[in-house]
Design goal:
The protein is mainly α and about 350 residues long. Strand 1 and strand 2 form a beta hairpin.
């Protein structure tokens, strides 16, 4: 098949895998392994307040990307180089091979690991059930696993707000950014963003322990998320149009007006757009209130993750598919050929 067809199939299958297979168990998830590697590095850094610590943060990012990006490309490149021509056949006049199909499937699954869209409903559905049953304590405990705030004793409107805030905030980090960099650079691009995002989550804290070693990962994550976060309100608005939300047209305007309410330079864009499109408000007590409507109801949790899912699918169709077909898949092939060229020289 032509390479652009392979690229489109990889992107579509990655989304299908996310919907129906989900993530591997935590024990076998590459992000868990990446986290373990980062903890091992973290434990060996002694001088925390120095330029050497800032450099260590930069070198750690490169190391983690080389390890995990290299393994991913070794796998996909190995399949393409050793199985690419195996089992050739024609379908409607289009040449194909079993090896090519295996390469498409393997690349799609590895790409899926770099993003998570339909996990939102998986995490939030049990919370909805607890809230409907009036069990606020159980709902708060489950929500605590998703957010960085104290949930114990929180009332129903703030639990639902916490869920919707997390869903909308993660539109950029968990979906749009990895999909955009996959479109630009293929699988290496998606892995590069995932490394930065995980390192920011683990090291990007403004305290004495991490302010230097986490400086580069935090700033790099902000840079990589800059464009996807500012595109997010448009796609939230488009999704709201298809879902016939009355306030869909206010998504972009609200994002421009209110995005600075969050401490993060990027997370406010999808959050304010989502709140506006849904006609509700989000509140993190003592930090921000965004939107003009009431706090979310239990039903709004489902409306929220359906909105984010649709926005992500539209983004993939409009942005990811053209980019990966024209650019990203070719960059990935260059990476694969380069690594196997090095192996051949060695």
């Amino acid at each position: 098949m032509q390479l652009w067809i392979d690229a489109v199939l990889i992107a579509v299958l990655a989304m299908v895998f996310d919907r129906y297979l989900g993530d591997p168990s935590n024990k076998y998830h590459p992000l868990r392994w990446m986290g373990n590697l980062l903890m091992a590095i973290d434990n060996r850094v002694k001088k925390r307040q120095s330029y050497r610590a800032v450099l260590m943060g930069f070198l750690s990012y490169l190391f983690v990307f080389i390890v995990f990006g290299g393994v991913a490309i070794l796998i996909t490149g190995g399949v393409r180089h050793f199985l690419g021509g195996v089992g050739s056949f024609d379908v409607a006049g289009i040449g194909c091979s079993v090896g090519e199909i295996v390469w498409i499937l393997v690349t799609a699954y590895l790409t899926k690991i770099t993003f998570a869209l339909f996990a939102f409903r998986k995490f939030c559905a049990p919370i909805e059930v607890d809230l409907e049953n009036g069990d606020l304590e159980a709902a708060a405990d489950k929500t605590q696993m998703m957010v960085n705030r104290k949930m114990k004793g929180m009332d129903l409107p703030h639990i639902t707000s916490s869920c919707c805030e997390t869903i909308s905030e993660n539109l950029v980090d968990s979906v749009l950014s990895p999909l955009m960099y996959f479109g630009l650079l293929g699988l290496p691009g998606a892995v590069a963003f995932s490394c930065a995002n995980l390192m920011d989550a683990m090291w990007g804290r403004l305290n004495e322990k991490y302010k230097d070693i986490g400086h580069f990962p935090a700033r790099w994550d902000d840079v990589l998320g800059f464009i996807p976060s500012r595109l997010a309100p448009f796609f939230v608005g488009f999704a709201g149009l298809f879902m016939r939300f009355e306030n869909r047209k206010s998504a972009v305007k609200a994002a421009i007006a209110e995005h600075k309410k969050t401490p993060s330079p990027n997370s406010g864009w999808p959050m304010t757009a989502t709140a506006a499109a849904m006609g509700i408000s989000f509140e993190k007590e003592g930090v921000y209130v965004m939107g003009e409507g009431p706090l979310p109801t239990i039903k709004d949790i489902r409306r929220c993750y359906h909105l984010i899912e649709l926005a992500s699918i539209i983004f993939m169709i409009v942005v990811t598919l053209p980019l990966v077909a024209l650019l990203g898949i070719h960059v990935q092939i260059i990476f694969e050929d380069f690594i196997y060229g090095l192996i051949g020289v060695i």
